[in-house]
Structure formats: C-alpha cells, structure tokens
Amino acid sequence: MFTITLICFVSWLSSLKPVEGHGFVHSVIVGGREYPGWNPFSDPYSVPPAKIVRKVLNDGFIDSEDADLPCHHGGNDGTGAIADVNAGSQVTLRWSYWPADHQGPVSTYMASCNGDCATFLAGNGKWFKLDAEGYDSSTRQWATDRLRANNNSWSSTIPAQLAPGQYLIRNEIIALHSIIPQFYPSCSQINVSGTGTSQPHENELVSIPGLYNNAIWPNIYGNFSSFTIPGPLPVTFSDNEGGATPVSPTAASTPPNPSGGDTSTTWSVPKPSRPPTHCHLASRRLIRRRSR
Ligand SMILES: *[C@@H]1O[C@H](CO)[C@@H](O)[C@H](O)[C@H]1NC(C)=O
Ligand SMILES: *[C@@H]1O[C@H](CO)[C@@H](O)[C@H](O)[C@H]1NC(C)=O
Ligand SMILES: *[C@@H]1O[C@H](CO)[C@@H](O)[C@H](O)[C@H]1NC(C)=O
Ligand SMILES: [Cu+2]
Question: Which domains, ranges and CATH numbers included, belong to the chain?
C-alpha cells in the first residue's frame, strides 16, 4: 500500500509542472524583413547567430512581480543584433502558437535603450504603450482570440513622431484562465530612424514590474461584460511638441469596470486539487499486478 501511495504522490507531483506548450515569438517582421525569433527549445543547443529577439529560457509564464517581467527569463540582457525600421511603419510579432484557452489582453510596449540595446538591461526600461486590446463585449472575444485568428501574430505601429534611436519593443500576452494572471512577454531590439522628435511624457512611462501592482483582473469564466486594460493609455504624440498629450494618471490606472458584472478581485475558479486520472490508473494497474 505504501508503494501505491508513493507512486500516486510522485505522479501527482510530476503533474504539477506545466505539461502543455504555450508559444514564443518565432519571427518578427520589421523594416520589410523577417527576422527569426529566439527558439527556447533549439537555439540554446545550436549557437545561432545573434538574433534581434532577446532570449527566453522557456515558453512558460512570468509572474506579475517577477524581476524578469520585462523580457522573460533570459531577456534582461541585450543581444548583438538589431533591426532597422522607419518610424511610422509596422512591426509584426508572430507567435509560434497560442493555446485557445489562454485568453486575455495583448499589448505592445516600447522602451528607449538610452543608447546601445546590446548593453541595455530591460529591467532599467521606462516603458510606453503603443497599443493594447482586451475584451470585446460585442463579439465576446479576447485579444488572444484575435491573435490566434490572425495567424498567431500581432501588429503594432511605431509612432511616426517618435525620435530616432534604439528601442526595445515588447509584445505581451496576458492569460487569465488560471488562479493568477500569467504574463508572456517577448522583447526585440529595433533601431528606429526618421525625422520625429517626440519622446513620451513622463506620466506615460511605466516601470516593469510595477505596472500591474494595482491591476484588477476579471474572472473570465464569471459574469463580467467589460474589462479595462491595466496600465497607461497608448501614446499619441498628438501635440507634436516633442511629447504626447498628457495622460491623466487616474485614467491610466482605472481598474476594470465590469458594468454590473463581477466586481470581486478574487478568483473563483479553483484548480482541480485531486490527483490526475493517470494516478488512479497506475494504482489500479499495480493492484491488479499484485493480485495476480
Ligand atoms: C502564417 O505564419 C506562418 C509562420 O508561422 C507563415 O509561414 C505563413 O506565411 C503565415 N501566413 C500568412 C497568411 O501570413
Ligand atoms: C541605426 O540607424 C541609423 C540610421 O537611421 C544608422 O546610422 C545607425 O548606424 C544604426 N545603428 C545600428 C546600431 O544599426
Ligand atoms: C450577470 O450580471 C447581470 C448584471 O448585473 C445580471 O442581470 C445577471 O443576472 C447576472 N447573471 C448571472 C448568471 O449571474
Ligand atoms: Cu499554460
């Protein structure tokens, strides 16, 4: 009996580690070229040429308070490659795959490398938002649904007014299916050129982690009808005076407005706590073998 219990326990423990794949940015289309992403499953073993996409050690999620929230585990350090891109043009971040049930918002941020991205630590970044999508209550679709429908890719536009220089561009998927929100960031190094002179205003810049400290996340399985994306509003640079239209800090940190829906901030979908079925199967098989 002890053996059976031990097998069950060990098998239950092994079921705690993530078993499914998520996805990673496997290519970036920028400046009219397609650049390969960092493949966490093959690149560590093949010593590829430097890539514009910063390393990720795996395709797992990052916690909201993790120091690696900016650019995933392994992405704090720079890479020797950078992509040239004109301000005003589009960047497409193509994920290898995204699981349908990992629903939530998708957003793109940028941060100046204050010079050379190759030596810039992502943790020192002051990030501004290019775009973000959350939940569309008319279609009942999350941004991740749209990303999946769009060949697992997300396109963002580099603001035409943005001052030239080296920047990190950070695409982030947030999955809300679990007890805690799961963050899946990816960073690429880009060299923006153009005649723009605008820098984001101080109140449009956020630190990561820190960005999500006051965020309230909905229970996506519960009764909610809308979701306000946490963080600042996207930059607009509409005043053309070397900066963007000031964004009110209160508007930037507005919590989700569920308009009559679920206002609770706690998660009400518990993870199954019983051991998985293969444990029962294993023990049954063992009993049968013993009784023979
Ligand atoms: C979709 O993405 C794959 C790579 O993931 C690419 O080969 C293919 O051309 C893309 N399809 C379209 C329509 O962009
Ligand atoms: C960035 O682009 C500018 C042209 O806009 C170029 O002069 C510079 O060499 C580029 N920097 C890198 C590191 O590629
Ligand atoms: C969901 O919320 C709306 C608005 O408060 C309410 O009318 C409706 O009965 C709720 N539905 C469920 C299943 O709780
Ligand atoms: Cu997962």
Answer: 23-291 (2.70.50.70)
